[in-house]
Specification:
alpha+beta, Nucleotidyltransferase, domain 5, 3 domains, three-stranded antiparallel beta sheet, two-stranded parallel sheet, 12 helices, 7 strands, 45% helix
């Protein structure tokens, strides 16, 4: 509706300007004596209105443009009566700004379709922890729409998305060479609503970025930690290394049992969390995308919440280091690629809320006939 009203206003303004141009050309064909007499005749009638102090109606855009154009051919300051000279100069500046805006309009790639722009904005607003790379990874994997992260960033609301950092090259070289054989583990602390401290133990596969195991306890011990590692390290996968820090809970007896099972334990240096960067980054992701938005009531509540988020992390959250890709993709995400910026016909975008709407999983589905 606003576009139709704007088009109607532009059409009427252009029609009025064309009428003024035809009148100007018609006046140019008259003799000088006729023009002087007509000018004096109109001035006499205008003087009557000025004496009566009759208030003129508001000038239209076409009238303003016509006065600005005609003021170039004579000394208009003595003939101006309906507005002040500063007002006419302001009209002239406004006309120049409109002309320059038209002349300087961006030229290049066409904008994304309006429905895709709205989808990007909706995904950014519904998932405040997602950045442009995360949204750009979601689109081709689940919706078969290919858009670069830089293009996604143009249509995202301001101040949306986490900041990215730079990792060490030498450590990354080692990890890339051994990623499929390295599990990584670490603890982090969560406070409940009654200020009780709970300890969350995470084990991730560095190669696939999959959370292989997690558990929650209020009293972590070396025996409890060893039991958690035994549930992950079964010997069926080619695991050769295990990374953990120098916390006292990782006792020498625990390391001895792991070494006897065929693993080589890699202890990070003291006060060097960057050496355990993958698990530290995962812990930061858990906090930013889950725990920062809720207060656990107790151990059972925290375990249930993390179980739902870990399922989303492994099966619905794309990771840029995987191509981008999903660790455990569902069959519903495996769809045929279509055009870059178009949603296939007879299809629609469906969103499933995760953790009460904190995150959403998007998929494309066919509209029922």
């Amino acid at each position: 509706m606003p576009d139709r009203k704007r088009f109607s206003c532009l059409f009427l303004t252009g029609l009025s300007l064309c009428s003024d141009v035809l009148s100007f050309l018609k006046q140019c064909l008259k003799s000088r004596t006729s023009l002087v007499a007509e000018n004096l005749f109109l001035r006499k009638q205008l003087a009557v209105y000025l004496e009566r102090k009759a208030k003129p109606r508001r000038a239209t855009d076409a009238t303003r443009l016509s006065l600005v154009f005609l003021s170039r051919f004579f000394d208009w300051r003595q003939a101006l009566a309906i507005v002040k000279p500063e007002t006419l100069i302001g009209w002239h500046r406004k006309a120049f700004r409109l002309f320059w805006r038209w002349k300087s309009k961006p030229r290049g790639r066409p904008r994304l379709p309006i429905d895709l722009r709205n989808l990007i904005r909706e995904m950014a607003e519904s998932n405040p922890t997602w950045g442009e790379e995360r949204i750009a990874n979601e689109l081709p994997i689940k919706l078969a729409i290919r858009v670069s992260p830089r293009t996604v960033g143009r249509y995202m609301p301001e101040s949306t998305g986490p900041r990215t950092g730079v990792s060490s090259h030498r450590w990354m070289t080692f990890v890339h060479n051994h990623a499929q054989a390295i599990p990584d583990c670490d603890f982090f602390v969560v406070a409940t609503v009654r200020f009780r401290l709970l300890y969350v133990f995470l084990v991730m596969e560095v190669g696939s970025r999959r959370i292989a195991h997690f558990n929650v306890t209020a009293h972590p011990t070396a025996a409890w930690t060893l039991q958690q590692l035994r549930e992950v390290i079964t010997g069926e996968q080619p695991q050769r290394y295990l990374i953990h820090d120098r916390d006292s809970i990782f006792s020498s007896d625990l390391d001895s049992v792991l070494v006897s099972s065929g693993l080589k334990v890699l202890k990070t240096p003291i006060r060097s969390p960057q050496a355990n960067a993958f698990c530290e980054r995962l812990i930061g992701t858990v906090r930013r995308e889950c725990l920062d938005f809720l207060i656990p009531l107790n151990e059972r509540h925290l375990r249930r919440t993390l179980k739902q988020w870990v399922s989303h992390y492994n099966r619905g959250r794309p990771h840029s280091s995987l191509g981008p890709g999903i660790r455990e993709p569902n069959a519903e995400f495996r769809i045929a690629a279509t055009s870059r910026h178009q949603i296939p016909r007879n299809h629609r975008i469906a969103a499933r809320p995760i953790l009460g709407g904190l995150h959403h999983e998007y998929r494309i589905e066919r509209i029922a006939a």
